[in-house]
Amino acid sequence: MDGLQLLQYRQQDATFTGIEGRVRQSLTRKLGVTLFGDTVRARLAGGGLLPRISASCAGVRLDASLGA
Q1: Which of 9, 28, 48, 54 has CB atoms 3.0–4.6 Å from 44's, for a disulfide?
Q2: Mean pLDDT over all residues of the chain?
Q3: Higher pLDDT, 11 or 39
Q4: What total of structural domains would you count in the chain?
């Protein structure tokens, strides 16, 4: 068929290892900061890497309460 990409997938045993975390610190009664991140590694039983695994993530968030 023209214009269609042919994909073939196979099922295999795999091992997933990961961690996720979040730390929040209040700076004042109305202001806080949060550090967060996660990562996942996955390998096929035969030793190859798995495709389509999410990239690692890390970030900082500032929380503010503007109400009374």
Answers
A1: 48
A2: 91
A3: 39
A4: 1
